[in-house]
Amino acid sequence: MSEAPRFTEEEVVRYARHIILPMIGGKGQRRLLDSSVLCIGAGGLGSPVAMYLAAAGVGKLGIVDFDRVDLTNLQRQILHTTADVGRPKVESAVDRLSALNPGIEIVGHDTVLTSANAMDLLGGYDVIVDGSDNFPVRYLANDATQMLGKPLVHGSIYQFDGQATVFMPGPETPCYRCLFPHPPPPGTVPSCAEGGVFGVLPGIVGSIQATEAIKVITGIGNPLVGRLLIFDALDMEFTTVKIRWDAECPVCGKEPSITELIDYDAFCGIAPGQVPTEAEHGVATTVGD
User: Along the 289 residues of the chain, how does pLDDT read in single tens digits?
Assistant: First the structure.
């Protein structure tokens, strides 16, 4: 007979609504407390992801971001307040999340995620949630998690539309490159600053990402593996389409040709020294029926 999960008195009270919930219970909550998640980005998507995972009791929550809080961020990036304008986003995020749940470990990584540090950073966590806003980091996160054998919860937004999925390393399981084999030409996708973004949209998509991360950690439900969830805020419609595994994929295919991290700025056509702009994919075209 297995021993019942142990909690402090405060944890029993704090996580009571999870502990009494069928399918999560004490065992599921213990898995959350014993887990670690790295959130890439502390912006629009990263804000709800980090706040809900902290509230849920993920034992170690890492935040990686190199940017500073700008007044224009506050329309959607709810991790930060007016008083945080000018502060590093990681610093602001750590303070807010620690105040929300002081019983978990919050780790700030105030750095640019690159091929040089990705394996070390991502390797220290069980699950990776990608809330980044540029293509080089998306491909980098995908390739690194595939090589490390770690789940990647993906989300992206564009104006009034969003999408989310889970890339789970494994035989004949699609990755980000199966969905988007090639990045769009530089300058063809407007940034948030150029095209705008509906303020609540990242809250919805980020909450879905947090949901998927919790499902992966606790082992409940049916994660969005091999499926792309597409959300249209204007029509309030959700559509789910199948993602095909590409046997010729250079990372997860039968004979991978990319076995170590590459120069992702060059891969995405970004010149040396050029800062990647905020950019989001539109609806995928390489999906199944």
Answer: 566 789 999 999 999 999 999 999 999 999 999 999 999 999 999 999 999 999 999 999 999 999 999 999 999 999 999 999 999 999 999 999 999 999 999 999 999 999 999 999 999 999 999 999 899 999 999 999 999 999 999 999 999 999 999 999 999 999 999 999 999 887 666 677 778 899 999 999 999 999 999 999 999 999 999 999 999 999 999 999 999 999 999 999 999 999 999 999 999 988 765 555 544 443 333 333 3
Domains assigned to the chain: 17-267 (3.40.50.720)
β-partners of residue 64 are 40, 109
DSSP state of 163: E
Q: Determine if the pTM surpasses 0.70.
A: yes
- Please report the sign of the dihedral spanned by the C-alpha atoms of residue 184, residue 190, residue 191, residue 197: negative
- Backbone phi, psi, residue 31, to 5°: -65, -40
User: d(Cα 157, Cα 143) in Å, to the nearest integer?
Assistant: 21
Which alpha helices (DSSP H) does the chain contain, by range?
9-14, 16-19, 25-33, 46-56, 89-100, 118-123, 135-148, 176-179, 192-195, 201-218, 264-267
Picking from 282, 274, 261, the residue whose alpha carbon sits closest to that of residue 180 is 282
CA distance 88 to 112: 12
Please give the DSSP secondary-structure letter assigned to residue 181.
S
The answer to whether the CB of 105 falls within 8 A of the CB of 229 is no
Find how far residue 84's CA is from the centre of its chain.
23
